[in-house]
Amino acid sequence: MMAQVRLIGLDWGTSSLRAYLYDADGKVVASRQQAWGIRQLPEGGFAAALRAITADWPACVAVAAGMVGSRQGWHEVPYVALPADVASIAQGMLRVEDCASHELWIAPGLQRRQPADVMRGEETQIIGALAPQSLHQPNRRFVLPGTHSKWATVVNGRINAFDTVMTGEMYALLIRHSILGAGLPAESTPSSFVQEAFVRGLLAARDSGGEGIFSRLFSIRALMLAGELLPAHVPDFLSGLLIGEEFRIARLRDDGDFSPLCLIGEASLCQRYALAAQHFHYALPAVIDDAAAQGLWQLACAAGLLVKAQLHSYSGVTA
Amino acid sequence: MMAQVRLIGLDWGTSSLRAYLYDADGKVVASRQQAWGIRQLPEGGFAAALRAITADWPACVAVAAGMVGSRQGWHEVPYVALPADVASIAQGMLRVEDCASHELWIAPGLQRRQPADVMRGEETQIIGALAPQSLHQPNRRFVLPGTHSKWATVVNGRINAFDTVMTGEMYALLIRHSILGAGLPAESTPSSFVQEAFVRGLLAARDSGGEGIFSRLFSIRALMLAGELLPAHVPDFLSGLLIGEEFRIARLRDDGDFSPLCLIGEASLCQRYALAAQHFHYALPAVIDDAAAQGLWQLACAAGLLVKAQLHSYSGVTA
């Protein structure tokens, strides 16, 4: 099938690269994914990765977001300050001069000053998630679970505040390298989620009061030694403890604000956060699987890149 | 010089083995240390390690404490319940039948039921630290900093409560394996302690309120990216944040109890904790470098092992 295409979007993080090809109206007509995150580029580096993932696509204008704009990325793009919206983020985009294959623009990340915090890539997902609905809900909270989970507050389409919690990284460190992971059965598959253990962890975090989970982590070892926690339940208990800590902290900050949460991320991970939300008395959150493609399109619009963007014909559309 | 010796004490942990030789009055007349913790034994295992570290010492009765009594140790010795004192711990000691070289007894660890927690080895250090002074101070709190820091409360010579915080292990994990340790200069030497960075971490923990440091860890990365924290200051900032979290939690539990702390452990580590105590408004704590030797002697006394213990002549005393 033939389509008129206008833009290439690149969601380019630490461990993966996703590319989207959009038609004239912003509909994704083709997409590809590779493990070419900025820490594991193919031979030839950034330029080669871009050429390979867009092979046989027309050379449209391209917009990228994520760690590709960090100091370790292709071209460092300075952070934009809070509060930030689609316009101020688009204004912070920089063109990569040493990209021969495409007119390539990289979006900036966001920076909070006090206390210091940063994000790169998640701002684009939030922009994408906001796009269709921002007029209906003036105040929204987004949770983007992952290696470094982000909690962001959006008021009238502007990202006002956000926090990073190293939940995913901490989980991996503790399971792989700490005493808590010693003597466990071989790594469980996602399908073997032990909800009972996960909820037990959630409740331990919730009921830790102002102490938090730092003084509860070792109890995993002690419970296992006492025969009160099965080794096979340790991973999900720990996951519940860490995700529960995110919600415990959020609750302290909320101060009675029960405005709805929106989860953006991979489905099985969002399922855990939805379960946590329920145990911390949040209304059932909305879940968005992937908002980056939509966010990249919005940023290109706001940056005025689509006005001048030439339409190309592309015959590879399969649907 | 010739001495009459009566007992061998073994402080046998995960990563090291210390042996003490005592005279008839409990004075240590010789001591040795090897890296033969239970996870890195020499060829021949436990028996060979014991024979080698006591080579040319008389075959006195021997008392051991620490991970040597764990499931992964030489002989598992069941935990003793709280509250525990020198008598109940001594009563829980088990003799190792398959030790051909010595009459060897291993001390039990302690177990708290709710929430679950365990210790092995620290109970012996606390017993040792108590011995000379217990009559003068009915209520005492002990802090044993390390891989798994222990905070214990002693009332009238009985260990009533304790908590484990994985401070040392968490520090090592985060510096070696996480994003927080990425891009730091080569590992710093103990002499390069940056007090300013350590105190900054302490205060960040103290001022985190009921949230705790879980949501503050990523700020280390953000501060570094913003040029507000030197890479060389990251290790001590993180150390301050983690040790500060121990004190933040302790403060919440204390509820106005300002009874003095006693630190037991390696001098440079205790120095950090003493600095933390000061910033959390505790009176300057007492510091005891090594209390295990004294504790092992006390346990042998209380178990009645010294009554029947034969005196041996030993000519290797150097002082």
How is this structure best described in words?
Two copies of one chain form a homodimer. Helices cover 32% and strands 23% of the residues of chain A. The longest helix of chain A has 21 residues, at 234-254. In chain A, helix 3 (122-130) crosses helix 9 (292-302), helix 5 (195-206) packs parallel to helix 7 and helix 7 (234-254) packs across helix 8. Chain A has 319 residues and is an alpha/beta fold. Chain A has helices at residues 45-53, 86-91, 122-130, 167-177, 195-206, 219-225, 234-254, 267-279, 292-302, 305-308; strands spanning 3-12, 17-23, 28-34, 61-65, 80-81, 94-95, 104-106, 110-112, 117-119, 139-144, 149-155, 158-165, 261-264, 286-288, 312-314. The first copy, chain A, has ten helices and 15 strands. At the A-B interface, strand 12, helix 4, helix 6 and helix 7 of A face strand 12, helix 4, helix 6 and helix 7 of B. Chains A, B: GO terms for molecular function: 2-dehydro-3-deoxygalactonokinase activity. Chains A, B: Keywords: Kinase, Transferase.
